Amino acid sequence: MASDSGDRNPTLKKCLAVLREARNDSEQFAALLLVTKAVRAGEVDAKTRRQIFDAIGFTFPNRLLTSRQPPAGCPEHTFRALGLTLLACFCTDPELAGHSQILNKIPTFNDILVSPCNPDSTSMIDDVYQCLSAVMATARGPRELVTKGTVSALCQAYVNCSYGSDRALTLLLGLLAVAEVKCWQRDAPHLLAVLSKLSDDFLKAEDMTKFELCEVLPRFIPLSLPLAQDSQGSECLHKLYKGLANILGSKLGQSQRDPALKLAACLVQACGSEWIPAGSAGSKFLALLVNLACVEVRLTLEEPDPLEVEGKKEVVTACYVLIEMGIQECLREEKPLLEEVQKMQLMRIMEEAFGAVIFYLKQVKQEELQDPFIFASVRILGAWMAEETSSLKQEICELLPFLVHYAKKLFKEGSPAVSLPQPDLVSTEGSGVPQDALRFLLPGFCHLTAEDRPRDILISEGAPALLSEYFLYQWEVLTSKPGSLTPLTNTEMSLQTACGIFLNLVVTAPDLIRQDKTFSSLMDMLLKSLPLLLPQKDHLVLAANIATLGLMMARILASSAALQGTQSAKEFFGAAVCFLSQAHTAQADPGRDGLAAAVSPAYASAWADISELWFLGMQALAGCVPLFPWLPQAVLQARWLEGLSELLARVAPASVDFELIAAFQGVLVELARASKPCRDVILSHHGREWANLYGMAALEQCLSEQ
């Protein structure tokens, strides 16, 4: 059996004995010189290293680091170099590398990295990098390095091309991998300087370095910092664009093309298409980028070899990011980067790529459902279905059972899958569900529920019950903060889109609403949610969706117990009346004297999104009046009739368009027919006169009847 290095090296063994028994610094120093020589020569194993530590601990290296008087005839940093060598030796023991005595030396290590380097001090820098690498590998290490300023020291070492700068870059890559946001928050200027150097090198390189930098650069493109809004950042982006244009415009092998596509995808995730300049060159580059991504997807997925797909998942996921940008750019009307001809060509090419994605998803086995690549494939298909409703309809209908099953599995179980390295183009903050596939499928489902065949498939696969559960879950996420509704964009968008799906089902499949208990539960939830939602600021679009959906469902479920004058029903209808009644006001007409009817200021910014819902809500409320005998009383309590009478009496009739007059008349006629008190209020506020003035013939006739 081999003996330890202390036994193999009697001199080292003797030095250790001297270290333990030394009576003064000179004896310790002489022994240490031999010990450090052995350490540097790599003659120390784990057992001997521990013996050295037991002999001197941290006290002696600490003294060496702070001593400013070198031995006669020695360089001034002699003691410091000895201390660093010992610490580097100790750091090879993971337990010692995370010790507070090492962690509190981090500022010293940083100072050495940024100090001018003499030819005879390179061993000190080697030792510092060894210490920092060891600290990095400990549990507390990355956090300590970031908070103690190591990021800026490493950046300076790299930018200045100091000795060991390649190791500085390696450490920076490691820190950014585990703490990107914190690094950029604390040291953005220094990291930008590194990005500037890397992008400069990337543009100038004419050899394989260019492709190696494609692998490094993504780590230095922050998702948390708007690079395009910073002058230095913009300059970096332009160099990266030019470098990528050079690469992708050349004939490339796969090993060269893949890193370039991944770098481009990273830039898209961080900056959208802002890094691509407007004009002919930029539009050609964008079209080329999306084209290459589509080709890669088709080559990989049309005839999938399981082993080949496994090795290509990361680059295909990057291609999905580029294709999603392609979809967005083809739909962009304001300052488009692409010309109409390019858009049409790209839509055809993307359609072929999505045919390959659908083909691939049809082959997926049950045991593969947790694979993040499946999620990425479903997500990009959802982006296509959300925008392109006429394409690949037959294929998508055939895939719907799988999509519903997949979304249900992920929602019910929660997915432990760890995402491939591709942050969302759309932030997932606030979603709450691990791998929330439904969020990306909802817009497509909303289009599909308006059509007979896909709607029937979705219903037969149990989508309504799943969507109802999902709606309830997302509502709980939205209202999880006590006392207020948190402004979580994704959650709110999911709720709004789900409302759109339910509205489609209400209009096209009323029997389903009547017979499926799912919708009774959903109705109960809507009754409770609107009164809570309506008083909150910044949630008007969601309130409009919930109010209109609730009113339209109430017409179908009028006989349900929950709507028979219960407290929750009265509160819901009170809130719905409040939403509908406050949408319009009288305001000065700039074109003429007097007042004009206008959308209320509180509704103005959202009116483009909610006007259709408001008119549907008015129609639904009119339909509810004869079904609920207690409803006219709720309208009277809200004093809507008085307010509406005053509005119509004050404004110029020409300022009220026909659609608005019809909406008001629909509700007023039903109230006047169903309730004598409502009829009396309208009459007492000159109802006959303004009914005649606005051409509300049905209301005029109703008010004239005894």
UniProtKB/TrEMBL annotation:
Any one GO CC term of the record: dendrite
InterPro entries hit by this protein: Neurochondrin (IPR008709)
Cross-referenced Pfam families: Neurochondrin
Single Gene Ontology BP annotation: neuron projection development
Family of this protein: Belongs to the neurochondrin family.
Name recorded for this polypeptide: Neurochondrin
Gene source species: Accipiter nisus (Eurasian sparrowhawk)
